[in-house]
Amino acid sequence: MSVKTSCLNPKLEAKHSKTHGKGIFAKEYIQKGERLAIFGGDVMHIDEISALPVECQNYPMQIEERFVLGSRTAVIEDTDLFNHSCNPNSGFKGQIFLVAMRDIKKDEEITFDYAMVVSKSIGSDIVFEMECKCESSNCRKRITEEDWKIPELREKYNGYFSQYLQEKIY
Ligand SMILES: [Zn+2]
User: Taking the model in full, what pTM does it have?
Assistant: First the structure.
């Protein structure tokens, strides 16, 4: 039996996403500030990612320079399915809470910007880089572990970066 380690707001559900395969969507209206998910799992050193089954290597979420939250037992939960957008509607409080950055309409996909959580892991060979096809007018096309340093993003996401990055910014 697989045990859930994370918590998804019951107003949300996993569905097919036109841009990403699967994603998380609002089943009803959500107010700015509402908590959308609580991320749990196994705390792993970032280098442990390469020992996970290949299909699971994209899911661990960075919570500090050298550590991620993920699943050693390779269980994928709905909370692993939030997609990146360059024009997101959610962001972080602390490292494990995802909250609405603005009011969200029914049927909207819930996204955050991976720049809010990802940074270079000192001493590790793991490098994060991703092509983006989010179709936002401000799409950066390439998402990297250096993006949290971009001044416009620091401004736009201030208060919504994962705490370990937020502390480096202000
Ligand atoms: Zn994009």
Answer: 0.93
